[in-house]
Amino acid sequence: MTHLTDDVRFEEKKGAHHTIGVITLNRPAVLNSLSHDMIHAMTTQLKHWARDDAMHAVVIQSAEGRAFCAGGDLRLIYERTLAGDTGRATYFQDEYELNRLIYHYKKPYIAFLNGITMGGGVGLSMHGSHRIATDRLLFAMPETGIGFFPDVGGTYFLPRLSHEMGVYLGLTGARITVDDAKMLGLVTHKINEAVFPDIMQALLATPIYASDAKETVTRILDQFAVPVETSPLMQVKEEVNTTFHHNSIEAILTAIKFSGNAFLESVAQTLKKKSPTSLKVTLRALREGLLLDFDACMKQEFYLASHFLSGHDFVEGIRALIIEKDQSPHWQPSDLASITDSMVLDYFMEPPGQLPLS
To answer: Please, what's the largest Cα pairwise distance for the chain?
Structure first.
């Protein structure tokens, strides 16, 4: 049984014992960026499959191309903002509800990450039970570079990574490899791209019972896993840990300045290009996220997203990096010193006139 929409496909593959649902992201020309319609379609389908006793697992993949999913549809958000659309926050509300649905999904949810996986694509994959990735994986949470913050559950999983790696990734937007991602636990299995059809056959051929479905899927995937070769990021884990444990961006930059470390000095140059507001709000959100459960993080993220939508930097970041591509955003305020603790705290307040996450 196959259902087809323009941008996302849904298939039901029948095996000897059960059925597996397959979601295929199908906007390769725009790196499978998430439209609002795609979010609605996936939410509806996942809820339907959750109620279907014959459906024992879900696989999400992308159509052939460069990306699994490079993020949300930022051009749409930009156009809605210019048009004065006061309902544009519903995009994030619906996206975060989809992230919550995936996080709480009782059936195995297996993401096949074969290419660029950033922002919204991370939200579609990171919260499922299994993340399998190939050498083509390019993972990042680059939101501070567009005047936003690492959302889609980023404030939950990033601060839980070892050695302050999540804080580093969330603030810098650094891009990492499959080996880095596997060492950090962001992916559960590294595989060769060529074996993915064999994995699908094994999932269909092996009985998957509700009582131990996720454990059964883990055993199947373990048979196809290949070892990590080298993780460049883990080679600098101590430098990252001793620098990014500080609780202010200023303190992080000061620690880098006195480190005399070439890698960290390059990190400082990266940070100085990001939105100062985004950096300060992101650091606070990551620190608070470590103390919150997933649903509380998502509620907080909706508050943050609503405030960023009404601010300057998010729209300006999209303009400079996505629309006009001049790579020269004009941040307001333009320096860290101009952003007070009170200004940061305002982002965490419940925004007026917004419906909360259910």
So the answer is: 63
Helix, strand, or coil (residue 282): helix
65: its two tokens: 């191309």
More confident residue, 254 or 230: 254
User: 7, 73, 143, 180: which one is catalytic?
Assistant: 143
Q: Which of 7, 73, 95, 151 is catalytic?
A: 151
pLDDT digits (tens, 9 = 90+) for 46-57: 999 999 999 999
DSSP letter at 247 equals: S
Element (H, E) at 95: helix 89-103
Query: What whole-number distance in Å separates Cα of residue 1 and Cα of residue 55?
Result: 12
Burial of residue 28 (CB within 10 Å: 0-12, 13-18, 19+) is middle
Residue tagged active-site, from 21, 120, 121, 317: 120
Burial of 269 (0-12, 13-18, 19+ CB in 10 A): exposed
Predicted pLDDT at 16: 86
What is the DSSP secondary structure assignment for residue 34, as one 8-state letter? Answer: B
Q: How far is the CA of 223 from the CAs of 56, 126, 344, in angstroms?
A: 20, 21, 47
Known catalytic residue at 143: yes
pLDDT at 106: 97
Rounded to whole angstroms, how far apart are CA atoms 111 and 133?
8
Instruction: Confirm whether 120 is a catalytic residue.
Output: yes
Choose among 62, 200, 58: nearest CA to 130.
Answer: 58
Mean pLDDT for the stretch of residues 70-96: 89
Exposure string for 102-121, b = 16+ CB within 10 A, e = fewer? bbebebbbbbbbbbbbbbbb
- Per annotation, catalytic residue among 72, 153, 154, 317: 72
* 3 state DSSP class of 189: strand
The answer to whether residues 223 and 203 touch, using CB atoms and an 8 Å cutoff, is no
Residue 200 near residue 59, CB atoms below 8 Å: yes
Instruction: Report DSSP state, residue 72.
Output: B
101 CB contacts (<8 Å, ≥6 apart)? 43, 46, 47
